[in-house]
């Protein structure tokens, strides 16, 4: 054996860490034990621990109700009384049969398809003048979430940026959680941001049973089937010692200290996560309020309850994707909010699945005194046009004038901001670009979108790129 062979370690540090992954809880650590551990990041990063932003915050956390596919603003929050007259005259305009009525002290107009959400009109800040950049689903979804319209250059999402800026309030749970089916873009990656900003995707949260009849865990692979917790603790201590030794001579670089904190958090998650996701602890009255047990609302009801439980436990950013229709409603399951055809059949189905759970979430947060510092977002990547060029009573993609709403977190309740034209084809008053929306959400969280930057690949990145203005008119 040569001197070089004698000096070479029998197993590399990276290899050891990779082989140790199974002993640390798959869900919590899939995003932690990757090559990014030793990747050459371009700048030192702050730790995962909670810290203040650039200015006093109005909101501490975000619940992001993600209606991907593009809900029809014309049939939910932006009434167009002339649509039916136009529909009688033109084949490419679809009628809008759903009635709008005024609600709350604000007199906000809300569709009859959302009777539960309408009861919270005075808590909603409805922006009818949203403007995007593209009418392609994947690109538009990526744009809303990342500030970049193309998805061929992966970049972090708003959730990653919020965690990077503020850290995590919870000692036992991830800072960024997605509840439900996977989304575009993939939030389980942090890309050039530190690995500890990655999101954890929790799949189907509805109660299921194992083959033996026992309740199935809501989170699979959380506990290790090969090692006891005591053995995992020993393994984690070994990795900590190795990391600390490696970091000792690199005091100017805090990436490994952040990684050590992430390992510890992941280990604690094995104990705390099952409790956090266990909605059986909720009262029957709460479960009924959300719509648990009802065929149309059960799935999203459970997701919304878990979102509130995440918020209570200090999770910084919770993403709640929309609830797909069941197999029995084939057209609704195929299209979701993307109502290219039969809009007046599909939109009521999707509204029914989400209206009660979302309203209950708002009520629950308010009752617990959490709505004031929890920013709730509802919306998709774009809205819909007045009709379809191919007929079939549908509505096409429309990024030029659509609606989202914010609630809580320092926003003005009962406000309708902005205006679109007679057919909602474009903004005619107070345009809010996607970059403006993201800048405003960061501002509410105490983050300056121009100061929240990260150096990578020779340039400084921002969520809002070189654009964006805070919309102060929607802030209390």
UniProtKB/TrEMBL annotation:
Annotated protein name in UniProt: Sulfatase
Upper taxonomic lineage: Bacteria, Pseudomonadati, Planctomycetota, Planctomycetia, Pirellulales
UniProt xrefs under Gene3D superfamilies: Alkaline Phosphatase, subunit A
Pfam families noted in UniProt: DUF1501 (PF07394)
Transmembrane stretches, start-end: none
Family annotation (InterPro entries): Alkaline_phosphatase_core_sf, DUF1501, TAT_signal
């Amino acid at each position: 054996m040569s001197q070089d062979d004698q000096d070479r370690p029998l197993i590399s540090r990276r290899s050891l860490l990779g082989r140790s992954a199974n002993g640390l809880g798959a869900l919590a650590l899939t995003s932690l034990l990757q090559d990014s551990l030793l990747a050459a990041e371009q700048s030192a990063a702050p730790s995962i621990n909670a810290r203040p932003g650039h200015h006093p915050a109005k909101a501490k956390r975000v619940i992001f109700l993600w209606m991907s596919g593009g809900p029809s603003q014309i049939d939910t929050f932006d009434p167009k009384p002339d649509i039916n007259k136009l529909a009688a005259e033109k084949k490419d305009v679809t009628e809008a049969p759903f009635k709008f009525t005024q609600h709350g002290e604000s007199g906000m107009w809300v569709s009859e398809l959302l009777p539960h959400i309408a009861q919270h009109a005075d808590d909603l800040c409805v922006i009818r003048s949203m403007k995007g950049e593209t009418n392609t689903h994947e690109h538009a979804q990526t744009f809303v979430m990342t500030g970049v319209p193309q998805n061929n250059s992966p970049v972090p999402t708003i959730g990653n940026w919020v965690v990077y800026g503020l850290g995590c309030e919870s000692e036992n749970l991830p800072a960024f959680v997605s509840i439900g089916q996977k989304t575009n873009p993939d939030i389980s990656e942090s890309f050039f941001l530190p690995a500890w900003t990655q999101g954890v995707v929790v799949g189907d949260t509805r109660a299921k049973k194992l083959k033996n009849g026992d309740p199935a865990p809501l989170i699979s692979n959380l506990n290790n089937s090969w090692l006891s917790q005591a053995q995992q603790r020993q393994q984690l201590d070994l990795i900590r010692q190795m990391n600390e030794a490696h970091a000792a001579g690199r005091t100017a670089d805090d990436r490994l200290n952040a990684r050590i904190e992430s390992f510890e958090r992941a280990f604690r998650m094995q104990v705390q996560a099952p409790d956090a996701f266990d909605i059986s602890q909720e009262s029957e009255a709460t479960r009924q309020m959300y719509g648990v047990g009802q065929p149309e609302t059960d799935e999203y009801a459970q997701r919304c309850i878990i979102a509130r439980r995440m918020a209570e436990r200090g999770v910084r950013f919770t993403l709640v994707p929309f609830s797909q229709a069941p197999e029995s409603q084939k057209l609704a399951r195929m299209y979701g909010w993307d109502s290219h055809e039969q809009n007046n059949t599909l939109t009521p189905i999707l509204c029914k699945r989400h209206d009660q759970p979302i309203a209950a979430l708002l009520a629950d947060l308010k009752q617990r005194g959490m709505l004031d510092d929890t920013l709730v977002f509802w919306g998709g990547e774009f809205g819909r046009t007045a009709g379809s060029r191919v007929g079939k009573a549908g509505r096409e993609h429309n990024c030029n004038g659509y609606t989202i709403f914010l609630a809580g977190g320092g926003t003005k309740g009962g406000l309708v901001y902005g205006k679109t034209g007679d057919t909602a084809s474009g903004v005619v008053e107070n345009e809010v670009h996607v970059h403006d929306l993201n800048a405003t959400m960061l501002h509410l969280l105490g983050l300056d979108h121009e100061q929240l930057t990260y150096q990578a690949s020779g340039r400084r990145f921002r969520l809002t790129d070189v654009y964006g203005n805070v919309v102060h008119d929607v802030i209390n």
